[in-house]
Amino acid sequence: MKIVMINGQNHKGSTYHAGKLLIDAITIDKQVKEFFLPRDLNHFCLGCYACIEDETKCPYFPEKNIIMQEIEQADLLVFTTPNYCMAPSAPMKAFIDLTFTYWLSHKPRECMFNKKAVVISTTAGAGAREAIKPVARTLAYWGISDIKKFGFTVQAMNWEGVSAEKKLKIKRTLSRQAKILDKNKNKNKKPNVSFKTKLLFNMFAGMQKANMGSSPTERKYWEDKGWIGKERPWKNK
Ligand SMILES: Cc1cc2nc3c(=O)[nH]c(=O)nc-3n(C[C@H](O)[C@H](O)[C@H](O)COP(=O)(O)O)c2cc1C
């Protein structure tokens, strides 16, 4: 199983360690690639819209592409972000903005419909859910149906400060999820494309057909894939 971990922080604190507990508990043969933000993509979207015409024209394409190529080849995506002021970390939000052409409303990728994702956040008190939400929503708009979310209240500023009892609870929860991932992979079970994903895709196909997309190049992308017609990216996979 190819796993790509996107950490919304450079440091290895509670959130990173929670993500690692999940990945380490996966026993099936695995290759793991880790990225840290902002270390591996230290930019904000300029709003220039160059990507709408040609994604390679984004001023940050070379750095972004290294991450996105790995993501496209992965079976499982693990996103981690601490809760910062009831939201994901700023570098994670910057990553979301910089990859917006991957959304179903723009140029969705066929490979996304086959992936699973896990989004993990830790918080001192409240708000892990608020940090998870924008990340999970983004992955849903990339076309991923199987997204699991785990928020942990750690009452600490770093992993060293987390009580042994809490660490054990986090480990147990994520080990259960790892077992499910192992089982499905052993059975070669592919994720189901949900009704919601299909509905969203069909809605955006209708918009592209009606020339309500962002540009003629975007419409051509959909046309070339056959998605303006009856082709669908999850078919024949
Ligand atoms: C900038 C910043 C904002 C934070 N905002 C909140 C918050 O709104 N609510 C909360 O309970 N904890 C908040 N925290 C605490 C972190 O969410 C918490 O310590 C988290 O477990 C840190 O994860 P890490 O060890 O991976 O960095 C904040 C911490 C920082 C540095």
TrEMBL record:
* Protein name, as recorded: NADPH-dependent FMN reductase
Organism of origin is: Sporanaerobium hydrogeniformans
